[in-house]
Amino acid sequence: MSRSDKELGMAMPISRRDFINGVGATMAGSLLPGTVLANDTASPAAQDAKGYYPPTLTGLRGDHLGSFEVAHARARNHASWPSPSVLDEYYDLVVVGAGISGLSAAHRYAELAGTDARILILDNHDDFGGHAKRNEFHYRGQTRLAWGGAINLEYPHYSKQVLKFLTGLGLDIPRLAESFDFGFSAPGKNLDSMLYLDKATFGEEARIRGFRMWANDPGKSWLAVTDKLPMPAVDRDSLKRFLTTQEDLLTGMNEAQRLHYLRKTSYLEFITTRGGVTPTAARVFQQAPHGLWGAGIDALDVVNCLETGLPGYHAIGALPAELAGESDERFAMFPDGNASVTRMLVRAMVPGAAPGNSMDDIVSASFDYARLDQSGQSVRIRLNATAVQTRNVSLAGNRPGVAVDYVRDGKACRINAGQCILACNNNIVPHLVPDLPEEQTLALQYAQKVPIMVSNVLLADGKAVEQARFGSAHSPGRLHAETWNVSGFGMAPGSRDFDPAEPALIQFYGGIGTPEAGPVARDQYKAARRKLLGMSFEDLEREVRDHLAGLLADSDFDPARDIKALTVNRWPHGYAYEYISLHDPDWPAGQAPHEIGRRTHGRIAIANSDAGAYAYLDSAVEQGLRAVDELIKL
Known about the structure:
FAD/NAD(P)-binding domain; alpha/beta; eight-stranded mixed beta sheet
């Protein structure tokens, strides 16, 4: 029996923002006494207004109201703004995109060009940071932080160039890695992890405790819960046989054949045709890769899924040499994810934007957004400003330069600059630079961003969480596949112990499942984007409330009473596309779409993690630095 809207508390007056089919309709929301003080109706051009502080906004965030409409009009309807106001401003560099890549590029350019250089950073969102979004909650004297997008610093994989850049900002990553504990459901803790199966997907609701999605031995973790799965015995038995087999399911193949099979076969096909897992049983694995890939096991090859943490290494015999070897999976993180990295970048470039000077004080630093776009300073950051066209032009005195048009608060403006870096979504670049060569345009359009959702729910306290012993959950049938108790993150780089008497913060995370779109990841991403843009905030809120009610059913949790704030970070254009060998070819060196797409066009360079075909912070930084190096040489 499904829970009613009344039971879920859908009528409760929390702060909210509603979207219908990608077109926003702001709904006024009142706040209960003592609840989160947040305002989600800020004017799109109000960054200089008193009290402007986007991190505390609740409701629908990520690609929020006012951030995407102009870009959609440009890309979908070929809208144009033929008579922009030419501003009496000139910059040595204009950067389009205030995410990690754009901010890194601006910082590098300022270092190389000196204090006389003038830099303008434009961004279509109401906050800087791109996907490195900070969600900040204040309730009854307590502060809780969470990330709304980009999370980790996978520093063992970073290049010397990136490590040097981050160290120069004052980031001591190894020390940061020692200062937090994200394992509330780890062995020895009072909280637990679970596998949550919903009735709509599996025919019966089940909460199976002790399941760890990313265990050292994934086969053992899945085997421990198999007998409790709500499915016919024939399906459970097929899963147990696969998880316990010592047979080499690729017997008869040489190393080259094994590598080809593992790269060119979906994990779903592998476990069903060779592993004997029934399609019904295979559904428990479908969303396991969503956190990293945003696609299901039907659209990812065997290697992708094994590296994600799904079982199977035990059943493929000797690994091809190319796949063997240990991988260093250590990482570090701030309480607000990678948002603190962007905050360090902004503070370094805009004096007076925030107090402090170290990694230790960046989390608690309060930013003065009115200081970000002041005349006379070397670096300016202009929010709520969507670029719509960038052209190579001849400026006064026949100097080569760039004209950048943007729309802000419904008005089109033009900025002249010496050079420009487009640190934005690859797919929009051809619409901003219409005279690109056809080969480059097609290359930029090849990739499909991976849609993701990150939803954070503030509870009045953690009593129900303690009763349910809830630490984390994997929910293969729900919109968000992963859920974590992140209550221990406050206003310091380290973490704090979970206290059930204090406000609790629960995070929902995942890609958007669209297996009906077919077994090609790029098609699933397109369909997921349409699905996500078609959901209203009410739809998303209802899903989160119902999901949380299911997770905490073994407690006295009352969603109508206990939920005090909800922030849904919606990213239809989320992670950068990473090539999937199941469907993407092996291109010759220098001929992959991301390599062709990032070619400098006159005095316009292209950055962003898209340009590295790698959805991680180090790629965003590297591409920003590369773009600057290319322009400096001109």
